[in-house]
Amino acid sequence: MVKIGDIELDVPFFQAPLSGYTDYAMRKLAFEMGCPLAFTGVMLDKVAVHPKAVRKLKFQPGIDERPVGAQVMGATPEVMAQASAAFEKMGYDLIDLNFACPAPKVLRRGRGGCMLTKPETAIEIFKQVRDAVKCPVTVKLRICYGYMDGTEENFWQICEGLSNAGVDAIAIHGRSVKGMYRGKADWKTIKAVKEKFPATKIFGSGDIMDAQTAVERYKSTGIDGIVIARGAIGNPWIFREARALFEGKPMPEGPSLEEQGIMMLRHFEMLLNMNPERKSVPYFRKFSARYTKRHPQRKKVLMALLKPKTREGIHDAIRKWYGVGMEEISDESIAVNLRS
Ligand SMILES: Cc1cc2nc3c(=O)[nH]c(=O)nc-3n(C[C@H](O)[C@H](O)[C@H](O)COP(=O)(O)O)c2cc1C
């Protein structure tokens, strides 16, 4: 059991924030497969303070995905606090502050991973957000800005400041900001943070591509949770598998082709229930690239799924390669149930 504030989670494997991926559809399927906590992709603080913008479907949490964390990013404590309060009001169960994003345009504006160069601001943002909301507040952090540039110390300063100020959990991606997604994640540092701050909940992130690795990292580091990022794209079954292994059960059999096809179809249809066809069809391609990894004829199937420009074309490809169609799924299973 993991406790984040008053939120109780029965297994320590969570859906990481993934910009451009972890929307309602992906999060809902992760929950169905046994994930106990999921995060939105990063959202700018200034979005939340615009009433018109937050009414957009893509910013709304769902009824049937719970608990879900809103990930917020910005540069100033006051706006971050205002935005966090707005997300809480929209129904999100917790607030996660992004001090990790390495995108150059984000760094140029002093946001995300830039916090590793200004630890006082990072801690001040946390404190003001903490005061502005009732729900748990967590932080996503990288282990330094660049290696050997002196910002490793800032990392430790931020961890200490957040721990002293009562952070509900720190999720650490074991790479530098400058390192983007290159190289192997440094799990030694993640483990060392837990050893130094045993009373603080620490989650680890980096290179968790399968359930075995998720469970192994959890056991070997003594941390409180593992966030699964790229390993969960087009692979919600990773949560079912991690849960089984964690409970000491054998690795579950992989999903049948039929189960895979139904999952894809539902994912795609939920996207269509939130976005027009001309957006949903290309958007689904990046998921197809991952879903098809389990298919014995991956190359052909992927080609067939990347080509279509219409809903019907995607349906035809799924029917041809997975043997399932819309008659197999209910309206309820693709409904988008938002909280407001
Ligand atoms: C496409 C993509 C989008 C991401 N978006 C976010 C994001 O919005 N917020 C965040 O904190 N991390 C984001 N991340 C980082 C992941 O949450 C995770 O920490 C990182 O990918 C390391 O885990 P992995 O090696 O298991 O993928 C993103 C990563 C990828 C690959």
Provide structural commentary:
With 340 residues, the chain is an alpha/beta fold. It has 2 domains: 2-246, Aldolase class I (TIM Barrel), CATH 3.20.20.70; 257-334, no CATH class. 44% of the residues lie in helices and 14% in strands. It is built from 14 helices and 11 strands. Strands 3, 4, 5, 6, 7, 8, 9, 10 and 11 form a 9-stranded parallel β-sheet that branches. It has a two-stranded antiparallel sheet with strand order 1-2. Residues 16-20, 41-42, 71, 98, 100, 140, 173, 181, 185, 205-208, 229-231 line the site of flavin mononucleotide (FMN).
Unreliable spans are none
Overall morphology: globular
The hetero molecules present are: flavin mononucleotide
Terminus-to-terminus distance: 30 Å
Task: Describe the structure concisely for a colleague.
44% of the residues lie in helices and 14% in strands. The chain is of the alpha/beta class and 340 residues long.
